[in-house]
């Protein structure tokens, strides 16, 4: 999604009304309940939230010049820097070492990279389109954010095709975006 993202992709910048910012905060906590204790640090009530409307109907939510979340349609997707600050607050999957170079090149993650030795999937079944953070075998920090293209049970049983569709990864246009 953000492979070649730049300032030229931003069309408008507006400040969000405080009532709308409150609704955004509530929706974020609803989608990511583990952020409940941190939401005041992430989006303080008295700080202005900016909305950047971009190419492809993407909306960026910015506080103090830092992109926190983005949205294409419904889900709020955390920006990778925010994930690094609050790693425990987001659903995670882990790929094996062989998938690292492909993920950092912007490729979607295939099921075998999520089911092989070194990879980790949750025990519970997550639905299709759930937003997940991608970690790599032997690494501490997240390297990508994406959505499940199949449920967890389907990834484990079918074990072919795309398992996670990438939105953002280390080194892409979003990672390098500066205001």
UniProtKB/TrEMBL annotation:
One of its GO terms (molecular function) is RNA binding. One of its GO terms (biological process) is ribosome biogenesis. Coiled coil: none annotated. Its main location: cytoplasm. Keywords: Cytoplasm. Residues 91-171 form the PUA domain. GO terms for cellular component: cytosol. Pfam families: Pre-PUA, PUA. It is found in: Cytoplasm. Belongs to the TMA20 family. Involved in translation. This is Translation machinery-associated protein 20. It comes from Pichia kudriavzevii (Yeast). The lineage of its organism: Eukaryota, Fungi, Dikarya, Ascomycota, Saccharomycotina.
């Amino acid at each position: 999604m953000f492979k070649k993202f730049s300032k030229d992709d931003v069309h408008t910048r507006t400040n969000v009304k405080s009532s709308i910012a409150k609704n955004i905060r509530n929706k974020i906590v609803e989608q990511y309940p583990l952020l409940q204790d941190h939401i005041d640090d992430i989006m303080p009530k008295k700080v202005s939230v900016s909305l950047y409307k971009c190419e492809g109907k993407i909306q960026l939510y910015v506080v103090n010049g830092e992109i926190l979340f983005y949205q294409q349609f419904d889900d709020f997707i955390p920006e990778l820097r925010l994930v690094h600050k609050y790693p425990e607050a987001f659903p995670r999957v882990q790929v094996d070492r062989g998938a690292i170079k492909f993920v950092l090149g912007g490729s979607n993650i295939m099921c075998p990279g999520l089911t092989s030795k070194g990879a980790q999937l949750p025990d519970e079944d997550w639905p299709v389109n759930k937003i997940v953070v991608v970690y790599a075998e032997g690494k501490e920090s997240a390297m990508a954010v994406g959505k499940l293209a199949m449920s967890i049970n389907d990834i484990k049983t079918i074990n072919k095709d795309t398992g996670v569709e990438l939105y953002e990864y280390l080194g892409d246009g979003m990672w390098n975006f500066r205001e």
